[in-house]
Amino acid sequence: MSDNSNDQVQRGLKSRHVSMIALGGCIGTGLFVASGSAISVAGPGGALVAYGLMGLMVYFLMTSLGEMATNMPISGSFAAYSAKYVDPALGFAMGWNYWFNWAITVAVDVSTVALVMKFWLPDVPSWIWSGVALALIFLINAMSVKTFGETEFWMSLIKVVTIIIFLVIGLLTIFGIMGGHFIGLRNFTIKDAPFVGGISPIISVFVVAGFSFQGTELVGITAGESQDPTHSVPKAINEVFWRIILFYILAIAVIAAILPYTSHSLLGSSASDIAISPFTLVFQRAGLAAAASIMNAVILTSVISSANSGMYASTRMLYSLSNSGYAPKALGKTGSNGIPYNALLITTFVSLLTFVSSIAGPKIYMWLVAASGLTGFIAWFGIAISHYRFRRAFIKQGHQLSELKYHAKWFPFGPVLCLILCVLVIVGQNPQAFANFDWVQILVTYMSVPLVVILYLAYKFKHHTKVIPLDKVDVSPSNEEQNLSELNDQN
Q1: Can you tell me whether residue 13 is helix, strand or coil?
Q2: Which of 40, 131, 172, 432 has the highest CB neighbour number within 10 Å of its CB?
Q3: 184 with 49: CB under 8 angstroms?
Q4: How many helices (H) and strands (E) does the chain have?
Q5: 3-class state of residue 49 by DSSP
Q6: Where are the alpha helices (DSSP H) in 272-373?
Q7: pLDDT (tens digit per residue) in 153-189
Q8: Where are the domains of the chain?
Q9: 3-class DSSP state of 367
């Protein structure tokens, strides 16, 4: 990295920002909306098992990321760790894959903003709301990292408060204090409940749960701009684990207790129909007439928060790719406030093009979204394998665990479990397509996998990189990305 301070991001994120960003990243429409369909497919017990296992995997993933992020806190960490601890070609593939995913996701989210706004103002053209949302997100990210952190803090806080209120009202409804009659746990035992259909539905819900938890890895991105990553990152990881258990497991248990899995409303849950969000249905069951409007506002906040985080993550990844020698140097330049404006402008431009394609060319838009579909799980896979090799290299080179600022628990069980479950989720996306030899569906579902493989092999063949031997892996603590650029030059 250049010695010029203007080419470095600034550490403007406080501990409370990092904690709330990490939590807010995994609370979104996956919980507010999709949790209903999960209960309808696998039953109350199956949904709880699937979300519980995924929550456990995410915790181990976060501890793996935390150990590396406290040792080397940098922006765009996923690509950096893959390059530093595995193979520069893997860092190249992971970085561009992750950037592409979030740039597309921002476009998807601003399109969803228009759908949510139609609840109140159905006659206003959709593109106006999407344009306003994209402009707002750009401005938030262009001002300062502190502005981004404060915005995410308050939007995440709205989601957290909503869930707490939901849990209180839900429990009062279950015990008959609200809603007029005692419900108890009878919906856990009706018909085939609590487990409906055996193992297969649980695996399918596991896929849904995985998408719900995506975004937790943002703590690795924020570590590079945290004022005190050694303190804030471990704190965020420990807090997120307990909050995931509290919010997801309890929320799904409350929904399953109040709404039977046979309810047709749960089967219809989708991001475009706020009126049948399970949260809305539970509030209505408790007698709250304005439930749909309240939840629509919360989901609007959630979607904007997701787009805001996506813009931040993709911008920092592009910045990191530049400073690692994987992208043009101009994208690594920052302004006086530490914002990588060139990377921000390019990311916004790609998101805008993707959004325009949703209007002008729906088929192109569909393929772009499909191409980014599994990127989150691929990023998780990269984090797990990077940590596995980092810890093995650390010990092989004679270091003691006491030297690390944060220790990932239960090594190597954590990263190995993450690797296995990520492969299971990726393969289990659409097994029916393979059974029917439907090659179009296979391509649409799994497109991001060959894209990563192509990126990896193309870089590897061009630069003749090799997997770094464990005794040659650089495990020294560092706050600079210059080491990665030097590693890239050596290979």
Answers
A1: strand
A2: 40
A3: no
A4: 22, 0
A5: helix
A6: 278-285, 291-323, 341-360, 362-371
A7: 898 888 888 888 999 999 999 998 887 788 888 888 8
A8: 5-490
A9: helix
Distance CA 94, CA 50 (A): 27
Q: Which helix H or strand E contains 456, and what residues bound it?
A: helix 448-463
Q: Which H or E element spans position 80?
A: helix 77-85
Of 294, 255, 353, residue with least CA distance to 51: 255
Note the pLDDT tens digit of each residue in 38-69: 888 889 999 999 888 888 888 898 889 889 98
| Mean pLDDT, residues 295-323 | 88
Report the C-alpha gap between 163 and 183 in whole angstroms.
Answer: 20
Which residues, 6 or more positions from 198, have their beta carbon under 8 angstroms from its beta carbon? none
Residue 335: Cβ-neighbour burial (10 angstroms; 0-12, 13-18, 19+): middle
CB atoms within 10 A of CB 69: 31
Task: Write the Ramachandran bin of 193: left for phi over 0, alpha for psi from -120 to 50, otherwise beta.
Answer: beta
Contact call for residues 251 and 209 (beta carbons, < 8 A): no
- For tokens 């650089």, the residue is 474
> 10 Å Cβ neighbour count for 438?
14
- Greater model confidence, 182 or 373: 182
Are 134 and 118 spatial neighbours (Cβ–Cβ below 8 Å)? no
Q: For the residues 80-96, what does the mean pLDDT come to?
A: 93
Cβ–Cβ contacts within 10 Å for residue 346, how many?
20
What whole-number distance in Å separates Cα of residue 157 and Cα of residue 178?
25
CB 221 within 8 A of CB 313: yes
pLDDT at position 9, please?
Answer: 60
Distance (Å, whole) CA 68 – CA 112: 34
Please, are residues 318 and 341 in contact by the beta-carbon 8 Å criterion? no
- Residue whose tokens read 């995997």: 57
Q: Which residues contact 108 (CB under 8 A, 6 or more apart)?
A: 354, 369
User: How many beta carbons lie within 10 A of that of residue 271, not counting itself?
Assistant: 18
